[in-house]
Amino acid sequence: MASPLPPDPAPPPSAGLESMEGLVIDTVISKAGARPAAVLACASTRLRAAVADESLWRRFCAEDLGLDAPVDPDGQPLPSFQVAYKVWLESFGMYPLPLVKRVKEFWSSMNTWLSENFPEAAKTLCKGVTEAQLKSAEDDLGFKLPMPTKLLYRFCNAQLPFSENHEANKRISTHGIIGGYAFYDHWVNVHLSPLEQIVEETTEFCREFPDVFSGRKLIIVATSWFHPKTFLLNCSNGELYVGTNNLPLGEMLPCVPKALIKPTDNDLPQDGLLLWLEEHLRRLQNSMIKTRMLTNLRYISLYPEAPPSCTSAVTNGVKVRGSAVFVPEHPGDPQRSCMYTYSIRLSVPEACMLGGVYYSSCQLNSRHWTIRSRDRVVSDVRGEGVIGQYPVLSPGQDEFVYESCTPLAKGPGAVEGSFLFVPGKLSRPEGKPFEVMVAPFPLEVPEYIF
């Protein structure tokens, strides 16, 4: 009996695609993705023509890279979306494309926010570094940087570095994109460090405090030019820390929830620095924090401006807003207590009214603060004025703002209290004194520390 004939060999995938109609083949190539499409283009003249469809590459660029125009990584125009995809792949093909898109969109959004709200700071952002510069930095440090951190610096080399020029430093001193706070003589404004400054400051710190860095792959990624405040990234596990006042002894606090950090995830790794910056951008975009003027200089203020961290109360037309910020770098013993700075904003949005009578102004006379720790009163303070001032409030004026600070034993707490005002002015009262309430606002160590 004759042996059965062997089955015909299966046609190559391209043969099956060749028989498809235009819309069907476009759909198949679209679902396959950009890299398989590039391979198919080499199979036949017909497939090459189908893959060359610019609408396909527009979709690939949007989905994989977040591009809405055919431009190179420097923003320069290119002749087509297909060329753009090729250029981006050549530049960033060593990274997962979802991570490339994520980091690109972060810097694009941050740049947009700064340009619209803080153009002085936008001008301090630097052009991204090359892979060769990253490799040189890693060689100098003696270890590899986390993938998300490397991508952050490929797109933007953070901010202009500080120099030996005191006047130049002073001009950009309040332009830190992380921001800060000011109370009494404690003034902090944090800048994101460029790659060359990271290497320089990390090397110097390692030489000065070898016990802190011994066996740990730490780099300094953000610092303050005024009162020292330092953020460090652990390149082994991707965790981000802020140094306390005892940083020379190795004391640091985590700045990002540890559960979110995935430094070795093959699909979408994320380290503490990327998560920290993304959270900071969200707070800027939703107006949780805003820019503020301080002695004619604009800066990003870290005092929260929206609930639940910022509370608000109106009494007889006088509005009081209050919020606080954890201050890890302030001198003290973080093992036993924490330091907080709080911001109080006083205003009369429409009119001061007492007993059905409207007054053109009112003046603060005294204050009463109650500070609680886990519902236990730890401080009950009364005093005249605020920081030596007795502000007069009138309808429509800008808020009167003042900042102070308070230590608190570890654990959640809150500040509440009241102000005593008089209608008119203290020198010429127009009615009886009245009490203005301060709604309780929280004192707590947050999940994200800035």
Your description of this structure?
This protein is of the alpha+beta class and 450 residues long. Helix content is 31%, strand content 30%. Helix 5 runs parallel beside helix 6 and helix 9 (131-141) packs parallel to helix 12. The model has no long low-confidence stretch (mean pLDDT 89).
SS content category: alpha+beta
Strand order of the largest sheet: 3-4-5-6-7-8
Helix content: 25-40%
Which regions are unreliable across 5 or more consecutive residues at pLDDT < 50?
none
What's the helix count?
14
**Integer average pLDDT:** 89
What would you report as the Rg, rounded to the nearest angstrom?
29 Å
Query: How large a portion of the residues is in β-strands, by DSSP E?
Result: 25-35%
Number of strands: 22
Distance between the termini: 84 Å
Please summarize the sheet with the most strands: 6 strands, antiparallel
Approximate shape:
globular
Task: Please state the oligomeric state of the protein chains shown.
Answer: single chain
Protein name: ApaG domain-containing protein
Organism: Panicum virgatum
Domain ApaG: 312-450
Pfam family, one: DUF525
Features of this protein?
450 residues; alpha+beta; six-stranded antiparallel beta sheet; 14 helices; 22 strands
Secondary-structure blueprint:
Layout: H1 13-18, H2 22-32, H3 34-40, H4 45-51, H5 54-65, H6 81-92, H7 97-117, H8 119-122, E1 125-127, H9 131-141, H10 147-155, E2 156-159, H11 166-172, E3 179-183, E4 186-192, H12 195-208, H13 210-213, E5 218-224, E6 230-234, E7 240-243, E8 252-254, H14 272-285, E9 290-294, E10 297-301, E11 311-315, E12 318-326, E13 337-347, E14 352-354, E15 357-359, E16 362-373, E17 376-384, E18 392-393, E19 400-409, E20 413-425, E21 428-429, E22 434-443
Antiparallel strand pairs: 1-2, 3-4, 4-5, 5-6, 6-7, 7-8, 9-10, 11-12, 12-13, 13-19, 14-15, 16-17, 16-18, 16-20, 20-21, 20-22
Helix pairs in contact: 5-6, 7-10, 7-14, 9-12
